């Protein structure tokens, strides 16, 4: 098992993961990052015209190994 850290970047600024979570593979950590991104996007449905959310994954050496981002832009025609 490896420890992965999931840092969240959204309209409230960065939230750094100091504890991390254990996963058997990098792919499982990737799936967790996408789940986090989905959950945060659902909770923060935009009240404005632009929403940008990113989850950056760091490995046991605290090196970034993966990033997933979601940008939602909305405007009346």
From TrEMBL:
Pfam family, one: DUF6894
Domain DUF6894: 3-71
Protein name as annotated: DUF6894 domain-containing protein
Organism of provenance: Mesorhizobium waimense
Source organism phylogeny: Bacteria, Pseudomonadati, Pseudomonadota, Alphaproteobacteria, Hyphomicrobiales
